[in-house]
Design goal:
single chain, mainly alpha, Fic-like fold, 0% strand, globular
Length: 195
């Protein structure tokens, strides 16, 4: 068992004020938190897949999806972070950069700038780089990419076919692929997403 707020070395720690947003008093260990978040994510994913709306590329949907995925666990779910991180942009720029990213993705779709998978993966990468939320950015943005792919007639991504929550070779491969994308090499992330 690990302490509730022990953060894996490759994960973003929560600020003390964000820890106060925990809604479930029964959560005392990291495994409890992971279990509660996963149950909420499962419900949020089911909600998202039932949605008939065609335009998921809006700021409102980005926030609503995060709320549906984490709102049963965290009071701040669906709200952009207000604290600095070891990753991501300054909090004051989050809303602007999210909207710029969504506009770019719409343009890419309208003009067939990239193949569909690449557009979805670029959306994922850009949102992860922004890191708009206090927690759950990777899980949220992977689902955003999946939803975009599905709405464009493609299958959802497999994301390495293993849990990315636990430290291990799959998570290391994912982090390495994200870092390659940070250096303008999207190919490893594209390959990982369909592996």
């Amino acid at each position: 068992m690990t302490d509730l707020y022990d953060t894996p070395s490759d994960a973003t720690p929560l600020a003390p004020s964000e820890c106060d947003g925990l809604l479930q008093s029964w959560i005392t260990f990291r495994r409890d938190l992971n279990e509660a978040e996963q149950a909420n994510i499962t419900a949020g994913t089911a909600w998202a897949l039932r949605q008939r709306r065609t335009d998921i590329l809006t700021d409102d949907f980005v926030r609503l999806l995060h709320h549906k995925m984490f709102g049963g666990v965290w009071a701040w779910a669906g709200s952009y972070r207000k604290t600095e991180r070891n990753i991501g942009i300054h909090p004051a720029r989050i809303a602007l950069e999210v909207n710029t990213t969504l506009s770019d993705v719409k343009y890419w779709l309208e003009h067939d700038t990239y193949p569909m998978d690449e557009i979805a993966i670029r959306l994922h990468h850009r949102l992860v780089a922004i890191h708009p939320f206090a927690n759950g950015n990777g899980r949220h943005t992977r689902l955003m990419a999946d939803l975009l792919a599905v709405r464009q007639g493609n299958s959802p991504f497999t994301w390495g076919r293993n849990s990315l929550m636990e430290a291990g070779s799959t998570r290391k491969q994912y982090i390495a692929a994200l870092r390659a994308a940070d250096h303008h090499n999207i190919a490893p992330l594209l390959a990982f997403a369909r592996s």
